[in-house]
Each structure stands twice: as C-alpha cells, then as structure tokens.
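pipeline/complex-builder :: batch 7 item 3
reading input block
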Amino acid sequence: MSAILVVDDERGIRALCNDVLTRAGYEVETVDCAAGALAATARRRFDLVLCDINLPDQDGVSLLPRLLVGEPPPAVLLITAYPSIDTAVRGMKLGARDYLGKPFSPDELRMVVSRALAEDELRRAHGELTKRLAYGSMIGESPAMQQLRATIDKVAPSDATVLITGDSGTGKELVARALHFAGRRAGRAFVPVNCGALVGTLLDSELFGHVRGAFTGADSAKRGLFVTADGGTLFLDEIGELPIELQPKLLRALQDGEIKPVGGTSAMRVDARVIAATNRPLAEAVRSGLLREDLYYRLAVITIEVPPLRNRREDIGLLARHFAEDAAQRAERGRPEITDAALAHLQAQAWPGNVRELENTIERAVILAAGDVIDVADVAGPRPAAPSPGLSTFAGDHVPTLDELERTHILRVLELCDNQKTKAAAMLGINRTTLWKKLRTYGIEAD
Ligand SMILES: Nc1ncnc2c1ncn2[C@@H]1O[C@H](COP(=O)(O)OP(=O)(O)OP(=O)(O)O)[C@@H](O)[C@H]1O
Ligand SMILES: [Mg+2]
C-alpha cells in the first residue's frame, strides 16, 4: 500500500484528499504547514507527497529539496491555486513530478496520483532489470570485487573513455559489459571487437566501414562497427594490438567523434562510447613504438584495473559453485556438490589463467566427476597446459618457427592424452608411424 502525505493549510483540501485517496486504497496522512511536512517525512518514508505551494510558514517550491530525500525519494506533486506556468516550471525544475490546479475534481486527483506512482513503479523495475543485466553475471564479494563494483557505478554514468587492464581471464570483458549496462546507453548496442583478430586493412573497414568500390570485392557499401555502436558502446578488446596505421583514425574518432569510411571522402559523426581493454602494459607498447603516445593518453583517461584471482581468493568458492551449477545444468546433471577438500585445493592454486582457468577446471571436473560430487581428484588432475605459442599471441618478441610450433603442439597433446601415443596420433590427425617419426625428429622421449 503506497503512503501519501498531503500538505495544505486549507482544511477543505485536506479533507477531500484524505477522503478520495483513502477510498482509493492509499494510506494517507495530512499536515497543514511546512514544519509539519518536515516532521512527518523525518518520521517515515512516503511514496508520494501532495504539497500546496502557498503554505503559511514557507512556500512549497522552496520546500521541495527537503522533501526530495530518502532512497528512493517520494514523487512530489504541487498543488497551486494559481496554476501559472512559471511556478509549475520552477517546481518541475526543482524535481516536482507534476502539479494540480485548485480546484480539482476527485477524478483528477486520483489520476494524477496513480500516474505518478505507476511511473515510479516502472522506473524501479527498469532500474533493477538493468542492474541485473550489468552485474548479474559478475560473481564475487571480496573487498577487491566490491571496490570494482563501486568504481563501475561511479564511472558508468559518464561517457568517458575507459581503459580496462588486467591479466588474461580476469573478467575484463565482463567489466566492460557492466559499464555499458549500468550506464545510460544500456538500451543501445554493446559492440565488442578484438583488435588483434584482423589484419590492418580488414580491421579498418570493419571499424570504420567502407564505401562501395573502396577496394576489390567491396561490391556494396558497409557501415562500420563504430556506426553499429552509435548511441551505445564500442568495446575495443586487445587495444595494444591495434595496427599503428589505424591509430590516428581511432584518435580522431575519440577526439572529434568523427570517422571516415575506407574510400570515403567526407567524415561522419558518430556517438559511440569507447571502452578498451588490454592484458599487457600499454606503457611498454608506447616505449617500443607500437602505440602512439597521444592515443594512449586519450584512452587511459580513466583506467580500471581488474585484480588477478590470486588476489581475491575469497571469491574462489563462490565462483567455483557458480561454474559447477552452470556446467551441471548444461550437461543436464544434478546440482553438484564440491567437497571441502576440493575447495581447499582450488583455493590454494595460483590461477595464472585467472577466472577463465577456474571456469575450465570446474567444467572439466563436472564432466569427470562420479555422480554429483566433485572431489580433489576431479579438480587436481593435469590442467590444460598454457596455450602453445602461435595459438594466441607470442611470448615476448620471439616468433616461433613452424618446427617449434609443431614440437610444442605435439608435446601438449601428449600431455593431454597422458602420453598415450595412439590417442595422441588420433587427436593430431596423423597415424602412429608418422607420430613416431616426428617424435624422433624433435628428440621427444618416446617411452
Ligand atoms: N567475476 C566473475 N564472475 C563470474 N564469471 C566471471 C567473472 N570474471 C570472469 N568471469 C568469466 O571468466 C571468463 C573470462 O572472462 P573475460 O572474458 O571477461 O576475461 P578477460 O579479462 O576479457 O580475458 P582475456 O584477457 O583473455 O580476454 C568468462 O567466461 C567470464 O564470464
Ligand atoms: Mg577478453
């Protein structure tokens, strides 16, 4: 039942409001002056306040700021004997929802009140929904995660460019999504792009679009992802991989909100909020000339660092249970139980691959586990080795040769197969003889 406070010095108005609104099912309280209103609102929360503009001790408009307190504040409707646009506008600017001109009919009163309350109801439901979208999938109650959420809350409402840093698998993309869905662009598109996934020319037209005939094969014009993200958010993942020749174009987009499609002659305006992420220190890329310094500073206006999992071990239990339930549901298994010993083992690991590695470990455990109980043996097995070079990015600046890649890959598959040659050969798509030959060539122990 919504609670309503009526503030009016006219006895007749108070009686009318009380009668009409009580019969409409509201809980009503009435007072006859500003001091009475403040006393009442200090005592309890109201969903709506009907407040006369002409009160004996203070005028209703100047009282507004003191009525609009609490979380959430009440909807305030002004009552005025002289419904002048001026007063109404002043009141609305100060946060009043609507106004009622005296005299008003019971019908008018009921309508204005129920409309204001319905609006609030909708707004609350919408707020909760977007909050759930933003944070729903983000697990963790550690101080580090609470701080991260607080930072997101602070940064989300603005349009500022944000740089998200953190090791691989820490949840950078999740943070980017949270920033989008907690902000005012939540209703528009969130568009992720991996800057390392495409070579320069392709990435150029992917991001900025191209005109028809811009290059061989460009049979039709294409709008770029910047345009797709217009009004929304463009998430530039692995920004450190952005080819140097595209960097001035991105800088211009950030500074002037202007992009130029490949082959195009004129620039067009876009309104996309840019969020970038990197898992390696960008300062280093700047030093080695891979990233323009001006772009770096423009991107890093606000930097959010996502802590590695080993710095928030308190979250490991929550995350593990969440991933276990998720995986079990997908595998159509029962609700899994993680033994205390298994949990202790998980909490003691270093997790170089962070949350993603934990997620993979749990998923694997759910599949391996006997029944619905996940024990130490299920989570302590050989974990998938670090990705071999070439499958993602190279470590340092050493570019492996094909032979090196092949050797590393064979070793990794052998490890995955517990050194069973037949299985490894099958996995590699070659026959046993070929595998033996390769093992000899690469000097891999063939025990
Ligand atoms: N706090 C969290 N709660 C629940 N799931 C999480 C959390 N953090 C990360 N994850 C999950 O872990 C996986 C990796 O997260 P994400 O892709 O956001 O990491 P990343 O930092 O972008 O990694 P990379 O640097 O490798 O791109 C995803 O499946 C994501 O849903
Ligand atoms: Mg990522």
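note: Residues 388-393 have pLDDT under 50 and may be disordered.
queue -> next item
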